Amino acid sequence: MSEHEQIIVQDLVKTFTVRNGLAKMFTINAVKGVSFSIKPGETVALIGESGSGKTTVGRMILGLLGPSSGEVKYKGQAVQSFRRDKLRSYHKAVQAVFQDPYSSLNSKMRVGEIITEPLRNFGYKGDCGLRLAELLQVVGLSSDFAARYPYQCSGGQKQRVAIARALAAEPEFIVLDEPLSSLDITVQTQIIALLNSLKSKHRIGYLLITHDLRVVKAMADQVVVMFRGDVVETAGKAEFFACPQHFHSRALMAAVPSIDGLL
Ligand SMILES: Nc1ncnc2c1ncn2[C@@H]1O[C@H](COP(=O)(O)OP(=O)(O)OP(=O)(O)O)[C@@H](O)[C@H]1O
Ligand SMILES: [Mg+2]
């Protein structure tokens, strides 16, 4: 791994301790020593069965969860060592879009406030109104959406709002955790096109967490396969689809019989 990598995840481990009833404790080894890296403008798909630890890895990259051991490096420096200004600029550079726009957007705020909140948080110097209009346009929403509440938007429109909010911070990197799973296939195709165009235009890197190999095929450059907390395969997309190495990768592939026909 070189200094060209933007995000490096190194031997990342997360063990949760859960209280079972009054006294008993048990541990869950959610992530057992995961390593991979992401270059600027690259999409790395993190795939694997439910419970394999994908979201836990994403949350550790976002700094929402501290690792039990191992580290996340941003431009060669350990994120855990960041304080104040450095941490603030990391939180600006690394944004997230989650699966469920119903719960990830504040229902009491209007779309305009939701999108401009990061501008205020990160001390945006320009005109917030103009930037809002620009962001709505980028994600394909008309200006009247600014006054709506999330419940007045469809699932696809809400996911566009979530993307506009993530973009407001002018991120270098976005963790996309199942960003399309709650959307129907037509809207999925539109959002995939939007994310791919943002990537090439702004050179944004993505960690794309998904179950859906059709989405991997449409978006990824690299594929990292997790199985029960471990990385079991890392490959370029073409190589992965042509010749999946691990039995779990082949099992994931077998579950989608006609990938080519669908996207
Ligand atoms: N806060 C927590 N406390 C205890 N256990 C947790 C916590 N968060 C996740 N886990 C456990 O860690 C394991 C990995 O969970 P994670 O959410 O990372 O999986 P995932 O690969 O994202 O699954 P899915 O595809 O279903 O979203 C699971 O066994 C889960 O139950
Ligand atoms: Mg998950």
Quick overview of this protein structure:
With 263 residues, the protein is an alpha/beta fold.
Descriptive account of the structure:
With 263 residues, the chain is an alpha/beta fold. The protein has one domain: P-loop containing nucleotide triphosphate hydrolases (Rossmann fold, 3-Layer(aba) Sandwich), CATH 3.40.50. It has 11 helices and 10 strands. Strands 6-7-8-3-9-10 form a 6-stranded mixed β-sheet, sandwiched between helices. The protein has a 4-stranded antiparallel β-sheet with strand order 2-1-4-5. Strand 1 and strand 2 form a beta hairpin. Helix 4 packs across helix 5, helix 4 runs parallel beside helix 6 and helix 5 packs across helix 6. The mean pLDDT is 90. The site of magnesium ion (MG) has 2 residues, from helix 1.
Q: Can you identify the CATH class?
A: Alpha Beta
Structural class per helix/strand content?
alpha/beta
In the CATH hierarchy, what is the superfamily? P-loop containing nucleotide triphosphate hydrolases
| Overall geometric form | globular
- Number of self-contained structural domains: 1
Following the backbone from N to C, one meets helices and strands in this order, namely EEEHEEHEHHHHEHEHEEHHH
The proportion of strand residues reads 25-35%
> Can you list the strand order of the major beta sheet?
6-7-8-3-9-10
Distance between the termini: 32 Å
- With helices defined by DSSP (H or I, 4 residues minimum), what is the helix count? 11
From the 3D coordinates, which CATH architecture would you assign? 3-Layer(aba) Sandwich
Give Rg in angstroms: 19 Å
